[in-house]
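Quick note —
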Amino acid sequence: MSDSLPEDVADVLDLVLNPDEPAHDALRRQVPRLRVQSRCKCGCGTAYFELDADAVEPAPTGPGTVVAADVQLFTETGECPGEVLVFAQGGYLSWLEVCSWSDDVEVNLAAARRWLQPHRPEPEPTAAGGFGPRRLHEPTDNTSSRHLIELIRSSGLEVDAVEGHDPGPSVDAAWRAMAGFGVEPSATLPLKGELAGVHQLWLDHARQAGVIGEDGTFLLTAVVTGSATVGWIRVRLTETADVSRLLDDQGRIEFIARSSSDGHICGVTAEEYDYWVVALSL
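Predicted structure written out below.
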């Protein structure tokens, strides 16, 4: 897609950004202006981008940080050891992340590049005697879950359980809603200002929106590797909780809380100049 990018990064972006989807097509048009600013030192191939935003048009992904593309990786034997995610911030390509769920299969960008080439895992028999797509048997104690749980615990919230993709609006649906066109904040705080008031401001709006249960529990997701795949984590408020500690890898507060019983959500996203507290009903 671009001579200015490393070949592995360019190839994977080409494979995961679908030209038939308007948002992906707009992101693809940014690639010729894209540069790799840095790469993860662990060898996974994750790449953080630098982009001249004045030279390209933003994609219709909405404000804040969103997962613009999320593609599971299937090996030649049909195993699913990880995924590739493309993140956008404010409509601009931000980073390409390689996530591993396996302790046995090495997952990196070179492997992802190979596995993303067109092929399909063997189908599994269905109860009716036919065949359906192979189901992903995701381990509950995977790296993505651990990272998300560690981040949540560092904020002082108590983790009750990994709910995953329980009935109700999904994590992806919540992020799409938060980034939707026309969404307005319920409250704002300066992005580079004092963060001491973030927790109470969010908590007031979350309670008003009906997100916090009578027992202090709610569902939560935050921006860490593989969080969309992990799904919702059931958490409980504590006296020491402070959601301003729910930072992404760029040091910005990004999370969504959801009611355990319905589709009310209240989250915080980092915009160009401010943090937005957004409350919605899905």
